[in-house]
Design goal:
This protein is an alpha/beta fold. It is built from 14 helices and 13 strands. β9 and β10 form a beta hairpin.
Length: 382
């Protein structure tokens, strides 16, 4: 049987973005088989210099979001370089950029300038605050957006210690929205024959990403407070200290709670009117959590993990691992999540998408700056 082409084989993407949100979106399109040309200023993507740590001269940050691309340097201040970009656009399906609002318009490379000439182009703009509104001209970085979106107000131990999430979730979430939006626009183009402009903002996507927490506020008017690693509407759903190392419980039903109580040797807790239902457990959170903590602290983490693994029915539980422990986990190893790129030695995080017929097989290392100075579209995008 002839080997199937990747899902996005034949799709041509110009990646004019820098840092994380846009590059992560372009990398995902590249993983799925698109031909991605990364267009860089002569100084290159800022993240090329965001080390240490580095790996063989490349910052780990840059390596995280620029595989499966080629690099071509173009300076838009030069007419010849603008002409080179326009030549590439003649064969492109997608342009992805995250310049400040108005920057590309000065070079005639904004969507209104390009659309008449390239009507099928899907043009995706990622900014901090969007193309419109009183703050559209502001630069936006993930940490800033985590604060301004409300995310930090619900993250951390208490209101006096707002905490940033340890990875750039605003950037990465926007990158995922960008891929969804691009693929949907391409699908619509198959009917209309026309591209369109996608306006994505980090602020918009992070506010949308507050999901049930924001909906709680909209429904009640009550401002949510940080609960550390606990859940606002499910109890027990948090970490607990043991005699040595902490563990995590995520008990989502009354049946699971009864099983937990039995495993702890306290079956009567599941019959207590204060704890018998989740709403009751939420109302009596402090008392229940105190009891659980006192019981769990009597034995080691591994003792409780063995006990919980034997419980029936099962309830969600697990250790709280650092990355060294994650890398040694048999399930992580089985899924191949920590891998190497096609060169056999550059570290790589495996794409989590698993197709049955068209598996993601290529992880080409991120390109050196201007590694492909004459890059044009491949006839075979693989």
């Amino acid at each position: 049987m002839e080997k199937a082409a990747p899902p996005l084989a034949g799709l041509r993407v110009l990646d004019l973005s820098r840092i994380l949100a846009g590059p992560s979106a372009a990398q995902l399109l590249g993983d799925l088989g698109a031909d991605v040309i990364k267009i860089e200023h002569p100084l290159g993507d800022d993240t090329r210099r965001w080390g240490p740590p580095d790996f063989e001269g490349s910052a780990a940050y840059y390596l995280a979001c620029n595989r499966n691309k080629r690099s071509r340097v173009l300076d838009f201040k030069r007419a010849t370089d603008r002409d080179a970009l326009l030549s590439l656009l003649a064969g492109a399906d997608v342009l992805l950029e995250n310049f400040k609002v108005g920057d590309l318009a000065r070079h005639g490379l904004d969507y209104p300038s390009l659309a008449p000439r390239f009507p099928r182009l899907v043009y995706c703009s990622i900014t901090g605050f969007g193309q419109t509104g009183p703050e559209a001209g502001r630069a936006g970085y993930d940490a800033l957006i985590q604060g301004m979106s409300g995310l930090m107000s619900i993250t951390g131990p208490d209101r006096d210690h707002p905490t940033k999430v340890g990875v750039a979730v605003s950037d990465l979430g926007t990158g995922l929205y960008a891929v969804v939006a691009i693929l949907a626009a391409l699908h619509e183009r198959s009917r209309s024959g026309l591209g369109q402009h996608i306006d994505l903002a980090l602020l918009d996507t992070q506010v949308a990403g507050l999901a049930n927490i924001a909906m709680n506020f909209l429904c009640t008017g009550e401002v949510p407070r940080p609960l550390g690693d606990a859940h606002p509407t499910i109890v027990p759903y948090q970490s607990f200290a043991t005699a040595d190392r902490p563990l995590m419980l995520a008990v989502g039903s009354d049946l699971q709670f009864a099983s937990l109580c039995a495993a702890l040797g306290e079956p009567e807790w599941a019959l207590d009117p204060r704890f018998v239902t989740n709403p009751a457990r939420v109302a009596h959170r402090a008392e229940l959590v105190g009891r659980l903590q006192a019981r769990l602290s009597q034995k080691t983490r591994d003792h409780w993990l063995r006990v919980f693994a034997a419980a029936a029915p099962q309830f969600p539980h697990g250790p709280i691992r650092d990355l060294a422990e994650v890398s040694a986990d048999p399930q992580v190893a089985h899924r191949g999540l920590f891998a190497t790129m096609d060169d056999g030695h550059t570290p790589c995080l495996k794409n989590p998408i698993n197709y049955s017929r068209t598996p993601i097989e290529h992880y080409r290392p991120p390109p050196r700056l201007d590694e492909h100075p004459d890059a044009t579209w491949r006839e075979d995008p693989v």
